[in-house]
Design a protein that fits this description.
Helix content: over 70%
Number of strands: 0
Shape: elongated
CATH topology: Four Helix Bundle (Hemerythrin (Met), subunit A)
CATH class: Mainly Alpha
Bound molecules: protoporphyrin IX containing FE
Strand content: under 5%
CATH architecture: Up-down Bundle
Number of helices: 4
Radius of gyration: 16 Å
Structural class: mainly alpha
Order of helices and strands: HHHH
Largest sheet: none
Number of domains: 1
């Protein structure tokens, strides 16, 4: 196995692991918040921002690897995924604000959870193109 394969595996692991933590965390937090069992934020911006930076960096690497010869439609789907990722990132950072009302946090986390499921679906579509 050459060095570029090892880097590709590590980058893929980073991307998938961050996705599991961010989207899995958002879904769990949304369930707890909707049941009224979540008081205040689950995470701080300093816990969320490094994960967002890591998933973004690994995403750019994936993109550089796929862009040469990307089929028609690839960029359009990636653009939609990117907008949803921006929504998720913004909500996760906002939901770390302790001053936010718990009902509003529950609504925002529910929206981010659905966006996360759509992002994972779009990623599966991108992979199959
Ligand atoms: C909440 C954030 C994100 C989630 C949940 C997410 C999720 C995923 C998942 C599950 C995969 C499939 C992994 C695999 O099979 O190897 C993937 C692949 C990919 N992601 Fe992300 N991602 C996110 C953010 C980003 C960002 C910010 C970018 C771009 C800057 C990006 C670009 C890509 C690319 C290019 C691929 C490869 C698609 C292909 O196989 O052609 N992702 N992502």
């Amino acid at each position: 196995m050459d060095l570029s394969s090892i880097v590709a595996i590590l980058v893929r692991w980073t991307h998938i692991t961050c996705a599991v933590i961010l989207i899995g965390g958002a879904i769990t937090a949304a369930f707890l918040a909707r049941q009224g069992r979540l008081k205040g934020p689950v995470w701080t911006p300093t816990q969320i921002i490094p994960l967002l930076v890591a998933i973004f960096g690994a995403g750019i690497y994936n993109l550089m690897a796929r862009v040469p010869g990307a089929p028609p439609g690839y960029h359009a789907i990636l653009g939609i995924k990117f907008l949803l990722v921006m929504h998720i990132g913004a909500v996760l950072i906002l939901s770390a604000n302790a001053a936010m009302d718990d009902a509003k946090r529950a609504r925002l986390l529910t929206g981010a959870s659905f966006s996360g499921l759509v992002v994972i679906f779009l990623s599966a579509v991108l992979r199959s193109l």
